Amino acid sequence: MSQMKSERRPYHQTARAESADDTRERIVRVGVEQFLSRPYEEVTLQTLAEAARVSRQTLLNHFGSKEGLLEIVARRVTSGRDGVEPGDIDGGIEVLIDNYERTGDGNIRLLALESSLPVARSLLEEGRAGHRQWLDRLCAPHLPRGDGERAKTLAALHAATDVYAWKLLRRDLGVSRDETARIFGTFVRASLFGVNDIKDTKRAKRTKDDKRKKRTKPHRDD
């Protein structure tokens, strides 16, 4: 009998651990949904617990507080920018815009709390540092080598791709998602290559396209 109990104990411990992981993940998913769609003040332990189908105490056991859950949620949503190859400007912008489409409004609401909520201030500082590191990796093949010029270029890239730029275009000016991505691309290339280089690149592309069209234009006999 004692042997049977000892054999069954690891199974029950594993089952309990898996159940706890499932519960934690369910709470995090609910946190993502609520923190991104509601003002911070409207997200409470009660609304989170009810949506996750757990008690408030269970939520506190996993995360300690509403602020503790917010920290996990903030890191979860920003991790969606990973996986872009260095130098892939267009791919990086697409990933960034998609991330802003999901999280931008929540970020703007969090920015409004930066001066009054310590956890918001900490998360936003962490987010700015993470965004700069992401830009550094994405644009690494095109960045100047000197530390001073590299820092200036990264600052310009940060300003050009900040969530405030997304808000201005998408929410304040009503620009479409695809046009916003195009504008971001123009900003990024201007920061990296300069306006004249962009114009020269576009001019060369048009010339190449025109030559290709002439080669493929069907010949008409008189």
* Unreliable residue runs: none
Q: What is the number of E strands?
A: 0
Rg, Å, rounded: 25 Å
Order of helices and strands: HHHHHHHHHH
What is the averaged pLDDT score? 86
Shape: elongated
Query: What's the story with the biggest beta sheet?
Result: none
Query: How large is the share of residues in beta strands?
Result: under 5%
Characterize this entry briefly.
The protein has two domains: 20-81, Tetracycline Repressor, domain 2 (Orthogonal Bundle); 85-209, no CATH class. Helix content is 78%, strand content 0%.
What report would you give on this structure?
This is TetR/AcrR family transcriptional regulator. Residues 1-22, 202-222 are annotated as: Disordered. Keywords: DNA-binding, Transcription, Transcription regulation. By secondary structure, the chain is mainly α. It has helices at 2-37, 45-52, 56-63, 66-78, 89-111, 118-138, 147-161, 163-172, 177-193, 195-216. Helix 5 (89-111) crosses helix 9 (177-193) and helix 7 (147-161) packs antiparallel against helix 9 (177-193). The model has no long low-confidence stretch (mean pLDDT 86).
